[in-house]
Amino acid sequence: MTERAWSGRLDATLRVLAALVGTLPLAVLASVCLARRLPLAEGARLTLGFTLAIPVWVAVMCLVFLARGGWRAWGLCSAATLLLGLLSYGVPP
Length: 93
Description:
Elements: H1 3-37, H2 42-51, H3 53-64, H4 70-90
């Protein structure tokens, strides 16, 4: 196989892995952020935050496939996960 074919397969594999594996922490942290920061009663915040975890995960998976490359997809997942982690646990509510 040529170098271009290997590069294309690696890029496709990285994008699929970023969509399946890299977006899960992002979705969980987004639901934690919603559960901690929404201006509702505690029970409503928890219910809404964790009920939206799977729809947020599916939406983020779809958006990651729009990235131009596999490394860029992983970079976007990592940056968003770091940002949501800091917002969820680093900043007091």
